[in-house]
Amino acid sequence: MNDDTLILYYYDDGLTDEQRKQVESALAADSELAARFSALRKQLDAVAELEPLELPPHARQRMHDSIDRIARPVLADTRRPARTFSLMSFTWGAAVTAALAIGIGIGVFLSAPDVTPLAGSGDPFTRGMQVYLQDARREISTLPADATAERTRLIMRIVDQNRLFERAAEQNDSENLARVLRAFEPILLRLAAEDIAPDDAAALRAQLAFELGAMLTKLSRDSSKEIQTT
Amino acid sequence: MHSRLKLILTLMTLAATAGSFAQSESSQSADAREELKLAALEALITAPADRALPLVTRVLAGNNSDEVKSRALFILSQIDDPQAQTQLLDVARQSSGELREEAIRMIGIGGDPATLAQLTGLYTSGDAEVRDAVLEAYLIAGDSDAIFQIATAADNEEDFSAAVEMLAAMGANDELRMLREKVGLSESLIEAYAISGDIESLRALARDGSDPEQQENAIDGLMIAGDDEGLLQLYRATDDVELKRKLLEALSTTSSDTLLELIDEALADDQ
Asked: Range of A119's domain?
């Protein structure tokens, strides 16, 4: 019996009642066939859970690889979040972010209607960074409490933005800022794990909120100093 | 809030509270005091190094929660003073668990070359969590050479793979290629080429049929890297039917347009 018949059987589609009974009899009598169907059913169940995404095929493949890795249990120690994070996810996001020029990315941030550059901010890079830090802190504070695929999606979007600004910091010779942003990514990836315990997620969110806030305060101080000295 | 006012509030709060919260007669709840300390620490980032350092030191030495101490470590990472780096290293060496790993992370954020160099000793003597934290610190600092040294010194596959994956995440293609010359090719190294997008290395390996398993890993790598052009070139260059089948499988996951083109060619060959 070929996979096509088993797929039709799984979807309860395209087979007559008699054909369905034949499949049922064959599955009951043939353990090898039953095992094959079981494996096929798992794959089809997984496919049914995937959400449609508008991405090029190769980017989609990378994203699926990334999600697979994130979905793996990473909490070897249940008392606190493990340090392990998905390295693969460093690469798939690049497929999306590589298309964005950094200047354009910052421009988009500054022109967004729901963000407010801080008073006294300095150059466009600093203003863009301040807005990003503000925005990221707000987004993290409003993430859904439960670990869901939607929360993972939102966090991965922050990861993309974070990469964009990390690269911007590197290009603006702001090495300290680039390192801090780079340090956010492993935390974000741990937070993106769907099997993370609520307490662990809350701790990571608090940590990010603090570090984002502190950097925002530092940037404000630096840019107001700059303005005072010019 | 005006930054000067914020700073004064911070200094007053920390001076009044660091180290003696357990004995406080304050009517505020412990949670509220904790929140206040965190807010004060956040604002401390605007203080000059000579004012901030003693306060952070007191917080770290005092009877405070790990959360408060972790936040103090972050502030320490942003203080431009060699004493701050020394303190971070002391905490990394003398503490345990989460606080120790946070101190290592903060050394990465601080990015001071001399302090980063000290992490190698911690890596050698530490457990798996410390080793992961050290690798992460080097990633944060962008110190691919330090990770390369760890990979070359690794005496087991697990440590080697972890270091190689970190190099891949950093896109450290030069170091990954040097590793091949130094310690030889392995499956984890081929996977790293895929993650770092080193298509040139993968294409060369995929063309080399002397080791079928290695060739197959390289084809998988090209697939992960999304290099349908490389897969297509290889498909057209080879007469090996089995290899063509593997390449066709790989291409089926990368580009439907290319796949259709190849299917069309394959069917035309049969006619």
From this structure: 57-229
Q: State how far the alpha carbon of B63 is from the alpha carbons of A74, A106, A208, B69, B103, in Å.
A: 32, 43, 23, 9, 18
Asked if B179 and B86 sit in the same domain, the reply is no
Whether the per-residue pLDDT at A47 is higher than 60: the answer is no
Q: CB of A182 within 8 Å of any CB in chain B?
A: yes
SS3 of residue B5 by DSSP:
helix
- Please write the tens of the pLDDT for every residue from A184-214: 999 999 999 988 999 999 999 999 999 999 9
Q: Is the ipTM of this complex over 0.90?
A: no
Its domain, for residue B250, covers 197-271
0.80 exceeded by pTM:
no
Nearest C-alpha in B relative to A212? B42
- How far apart CA A112 and CA A104 sit, in angstroms, is 12
Comparing CB atoms, the residue among A87, A91, A218 nearest residue B46 is A218
Please say which residue of B178, B196, B214 terminates a domain.
Answer: B196
Domain contains B26? no
Number of domains forming the structure of chain A: 2
CA distances from A13 to A24, A163, A229 (A): 14, 45, 75
Residue A165 contacts residue A132 (beta carbons within 8 Å)? yes
Distance from CA of A19 to the nearest CA of B (A): 31
Model pLDDT for residues B79-115, shown as the tens digit of each residue: 999 999 999 999 999 998 999 999 999 999 999 999 9
Query: B130 — contact with chain A (CB < 8 Å)?
Result: no
